[in-house]
């Protein structure tokens, strides 16, 4: 099974990747993975890492990895989000932080699945945080977005939960509102921007150095074994993680 991971080159016939290099990319749930310098299956190449002093390698799967890059490209390229605009973020602390602390959003409304996560989001940039598990979620969200907002960033996908609109067999339930409000809906995958990953990682690194992004509590790192991975990932559905859930198997030299 493929997985986004950080690994270390232990042997190489490549002029690009040397023994000892730290890399991030699509690897596999195995102890040792063989990867072509230029993948022939259309997959993305590995990204060489230059670790920042004082930070664990796991940040390249969180703040500096796909969650951070999704926030960067989603806000800049897809939403074209600008200073003083307002936004609702359905799960995604990097989007919350980047919108508020880097772009200087006028108002950020965050959606999360527990009281504790909502309180945490307010400490890192959210002006308002709404818990989608409470009975009056819709009323709270309506109050938080009174007068409408400029953008909505959904990190979790359409689902029948009360937090989001959902598809029935034929249409969006609120399709007419999409038309009359002249809304633009666009999906994207962070891999679309793979050639620009260095640009995004540089911007995120600068934001961290300027203390505009907080990554201390942005992830939950769990050291485990291959056999325990299904149990570990169950935390995603139990609210046991804060930010990105990262699994570590093995140690780097």
UniProtKB/TrEMBL annotation:
Domain Alcohol dehydrogenase-like C-terminal, first and last residues per copy: 90-158
UniProt xrefs under Pfam families: ADH_zinc_N
CDD domains assigned: PGDH
GO molecular function: oxidoreductase activity, acting on the CH-CH group of donors, NAD or NADP as acceptor
Protein's name in the database: Alcohol dehydrogenase-like C-terminal domain-containing protein
Organism: Pterulicium gracile
Lineage of the species this protein comes from: Eukaryota, Fungi, Dikarya, Basidiomycota, Agaricomycotina
């Amino acid at each position: 099974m493929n997985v986004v991971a950080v690994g270390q080159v232990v042997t190489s016939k490549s002029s690009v990747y040397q023994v000892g290099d730290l890399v991030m990319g699509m690897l596999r749930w195995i102890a040792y993975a063989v990867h072509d310098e230029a993948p022939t299956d259309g997959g993305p190449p590995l990204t060489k890492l230059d670790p920042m002093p004082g930070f664990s390698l796991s940040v390249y799967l969180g703040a500096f990895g796909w969650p951070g890059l999704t926030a960067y490209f989603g806000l800049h390229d897809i939403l074209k989000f600008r200073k003083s605009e307002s936004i609702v973020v359905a799960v995604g602390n990097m989007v919350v932080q980047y919108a508020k602390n880097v772009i200087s959003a006028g108002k950020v409304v965050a959606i999360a699945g527990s009281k504790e996560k909502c309180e945490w989001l307010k400490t890192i940039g959210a002006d308002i945080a709404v818990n989608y598990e409470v009975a009056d979620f819709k009323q709270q969200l309506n109050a938080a977005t009174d007068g409408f907002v400029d953008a909505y960033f959904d990190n979790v996908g359409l689902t029948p939960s009360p937090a989001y609109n959902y598809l029935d067999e034929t249409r969006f339930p609120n399709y007419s509102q999409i038309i009359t409000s002249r809304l633009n809906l666009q999906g994207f995958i962070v891999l679309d921007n793979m050639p620009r990953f260095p640009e995004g990682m540089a911007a995120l690194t600068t934001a961290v150095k300027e203390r505009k992004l907080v990554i201390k509590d942005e992830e939950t790192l769990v050291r485990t074994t291959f056999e325990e991975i299904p149990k570990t990932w169950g935390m995603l559905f139990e609210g046991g993680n804060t930010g990105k859930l990262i699994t570590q198997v093995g140690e780097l030299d």
